[in-house]
Amino acid sequence: MLPIDLDTIVGIATPPGIGGVGIIRISGEASQLIAKQILKKPCLIPNQAVYTDFLSENHEVLDSGIAIFFKSPNSFTGEDVVELQAHGGPIILDILLRRVINLGSRIAEPGEFSRRAFLSNKIDLVQAESIISLIHAQTEQAAMAAVKSLQGEFSKQINLLLQDLITIRMHIEAIIDFPEDDLDALSINNIQSKIIILKKNIKTVLQQARQGGLLVRGIKAVILGKPNVGKSSLLNLLSEEERAIVTNIPGTTRDVVFNKISIDGLLIEFADTAGIRETEDLVEKLGIQRAIKEAAIADLIILMIDAKEFIATNNISIKHFLPETVNEDLFINKKIILLINKIDLNDINPEIIIKDNLTIVFGSVKSNLGINLLKQQIKKSIGFDDSQAVFTAKTRHIQALEKVHSNVRCAEQIFSASCKTWDFLAEELRLAQECLSQITGVFTNEDLLSKIFSEFCIGK
């Protein structure tokens, strides 16, 4: 057995369950020595696959498969890495895992392979986080955006902002350190223009990050309305399958029916809900309560209204189309689309109109009229632009960029003041640089690293 203090780690890198191939990953100083005691063909050449038997302590054959050795620093973690590709049964993988552990390694913590790659400067923090985004991507667009982040596209944008910010800070610090040197108007205008350009570029990257954030997390949309306005039919149409029961009987939907649907890469979890009305039916009441609860936590509410009822009133107030028992506070600060359904029965053309700051889409679920307009408006209301080339971004990235934008905006205001306070200006720029550095991990802390990598699986 090898000394434990070599701190070599091991983990199963393939998902739990049964598959054709299962991979055990070993990383650390002792990985090659451990592998040599397991492999029948112990001669490992870097980056070359070897087909061999995997042996027990008594030299019995446990399995046959492929071994690959990656020599430091040319590996994912930057350390010596050996991957054993065995048959993908959980029993044989567990036997091999215990064999590796008995030879002096330990089970890797969640995300420890990626963490070692980060600490070895093989990847930065943004690239490390993009791995988990790529693994969990649920649309093709989300996967491609994660690949862009993994390849360093997001990090490149952040580093360009950092370079410009550092250049401005150098000028400001020089002014503070050498106050006796008078600045001419040209120099002052040059610094000011650099700050303005920096603020504009930060805003651009922030917008791209928000797009990437939508790809990662998706949104939650709730379909709300009175009974028989077509809520379940809308869910079925968007899902392209019969997800919800549709009948002419009011109150058919008693519970919330969920389905995740991709609209041009934007993942949306739609919730079909019970029809909102006054009722004495206990089960239906519970369904309505759940509908209101889902609407309260949704990113978007699609309020469906029968075109006949819409025509009969000149009132487009949301509250007008729901019972008095529904609290109006539910709709405060909510993104809402009014879908006027069944226009095919009321001689109305499909269109979108904006009236009193309320978006109204006219369509027919049954005849599939205006549904593309609805999809466009869903993306627009949530701020999603699928034409932009984006990278994936986490909430912490977006929050950091928002803080950076705020700092630089304050710096611009201080610079524009008649009496410039250079120390305050320098502090705003320092805080902005610190926030930017936290995104890629140039400046970070142990708690943040632990939180980020804890989201990973063991073998990653």
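[next item in queue]
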Amino acid sequence: MTGNFNICNSIWDLSFPHHSSISNNLIIIADSFNLDLSIPTDQVPTRYSDTIGKSNSVIDLMFLQSGSTELNNHLIHLNWQLTSDHASLTVSIPIAEANINSFKLSIMKNSEEKASFIKDVSSIIKNLNISDMSDINKLENIVNILASNTEHVWRKNSKLVNVTRHSKSWWNKDCNQSLRNYRISRTLEDWKIFKKTVKFSKQSFFNLKI
């Protein structure tokens, strides 16, 4: 959170002799968003007065994520003012690698595994003994049994998939098989079949979405 807050205060401007109660409100609001006042690497004014007798001030502030070791201070660029009476503030934000591989258990839509999972869960619910829910402990026990059994059938029917930025929700078993066929034969005919399979899979997927 950053900008010209137009508040002079001794907390962020060492040359200013007074403390304002408005500053307390600003800090409380920032804290509610888990943000802390950032201290610039060079503590210099951010607003430069062109009025004779009026001093420069610090009224442009930046609030960054609390407790962060990567986002803990900002820069004030006096040479970027141009015709403005305010200096620019910048912070360097670390960007993670674009391609982050992660794994998760997943069940493909409209698959045999999905049908089996739904059947198993239905059976679990049907056979759940709910004859005695007279107190909170018995209710919790029933809920825990339901959760444990559901997790078991989820793991039984799901498989571990590698999720990357190239992953496609419309990709299915038919796409896998047709691509495998083309990689084995390397024929133009199998390439055309693969392209048709991909096109059909996309259409089917997005028609369902629409």
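[queue empty]
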